[in-house]
Amino acid sequence: MSRGLGDVYKRQTMITANMVKELREATGAGMLDCKKALTETNGNMEEAITWLREKGISKAAKKQTRIAAEGLAKAKVEGNKAVIVEVNSETDFVAKNPEFTGLVDLIATAILSSNVKTVEEVMKLEVEGNTIENIIIDKTATIGEKLSFRRFELVEKEDNQVFGTYSHMGGKIVTLAVLEGTDEEVAKDVAMQIAAMRPLYLDKDSVPTERVEKEREILTEQAENEGLDANKLPMIVNGRLNKFYEEVCLLDQGFVKENKMKVSKYVESKNMKVLSFVRYEVGEGMEKREENFAEEVAKQING
After folding, report:
1. Is the dihedral of CA 288, 294, 295, 300 positive or negative?
2. Who's near 146: CB < 8 A, 6+ residues apart?
3. pLDDT value for 11
4. Mean pLDDT for the chain?
5. Whether pLDDT at 145 is above 70
6. Would you tell me how many other CB atoms lie within 10 Å of the CB of residue 16?
7. Three-state secondary structure call for residue 161
């Protein structure tokens, strides 16, 4: 009799919200399933994970080591606030899934309604009683691929300023610019320029001193190796340094719609001024998975 009561007490061991949360993050299973697994295993985390796997409920855990370097970037504007975000998936196919694109929009909207500064803060934002972190876990389980929220930038402007946004290749490259002035067409032209020409800095003054000095060293060594007149080296290096600025500085670039005119002259001619910009290219700087295409197709066919 006493043994039977003891077994009942074991099964009724208190399962805390933190225990459920930890198991959910580890497996991607729903909260009720996690609570049941912990109850069935008397709160033992490892046994609960095994229980979920045996029941075929654990979905997200095995996806955590996969590479998610595809996905979408998105810029969204609301009044004097704008946000640009990047959310990653494993494949380009999933990046076009309405559930995934909806997730990207949901994250962007949540950020616009807040004053968050970091990705960690975004993950804690609540939407309809659920955190962004848990929503991503749920979508990972539902969609069947590892999904991750990589980065964002929240930007504000004044009433006498305008946002310019541009999306290229269905959200593979997205740009957001802030200009002084009110001409939205000019702002869009600048956003297109940023997408096409990949500037790293706004102008010469924005380039870090260390970067300029490093480039000067490289150009000097190149000129010396070419056996050029030593007396003319400073002039030659300065000339090549200006070419460097034309490549990496937005305002020094040739305007894509009229290459003989620099971007700085174009915006000035429209009584505008570029104040800042952000350019996101999905997966830039991330490790890309390399798989044989035939093998990938075979995997899809064979389930």
Report:
1. positive
2. 60, 63, 64, 66, 67, 68, 89, 90, 140
3. 45
4. 87
5. yes
6. 10
7. strand
Cα torsion 112, 113, 115, 116: sign? negative
8 A C-beta contact, residue 134 and residue 65: no
In this structure, are residues 184 and 165 in contact, taking their beta carbons and an 8 Å threshold?
no
Locate 217 and state its tokens: 């060293």
**Partners of 255 in the β-ladder:** 258
The answer for residues whose C-beta is within 8 angstroms of residue 51's C-beta and 6 or more apart is 37, 40, 41
What amino acid is encoded at 77 in this protein? V
Tens of pLDDT along 175-231? Answer: 999 999 999 999 999 999 999 999 999 999 999 999 999 999 999 988 888 888 888
pLDDT for residue 67: 67
Q: pTM of the predicted model, to two decimals?
A: 0.74
Cα 57 to Cα 40, 118, 248: the distances in Å are 14, 32, 50
Tokens of 228: 């050029």
Q: Could you give phi then psi for residue 139, rounded to 5 degrees? A: -70, -35
- 3-class SS at 117? coil
The secondary structure element, H or E, covering residue 131 is strand 130-131
150-176: pLDDT as tens digits: 999 999 999 999 999 999 999 999 999
What stretches of 28-117 show up as alpha helix (H) in DSSP? Answer: 31-40, 45-54, 92-95, 98-112
